[in-house]
Amino acid sequence: MENKAISYDQAIQRVEEIVLILESGEKGMDELSELVKEAAALVKNCKKKLKSTESEIAKALEDDMEEN
Question: Are 39 and 18 in contact (CB under 8 A)?
């Protein structure tokens, strides 16, 4: 799954799906390893999006305070 092109909500949903798969214990070691790598990449992408959104909000609030 190409995680850079998906939304934050889609990424979180996929991470939740992966957690359920991991908890089920029904997959082989190779597939589990790939799922963990995918989840890690998705979480990293989500963190970047959160940080970016935080910066945008801070900038908007700063601009708003300067106008008033």
Answer: yes
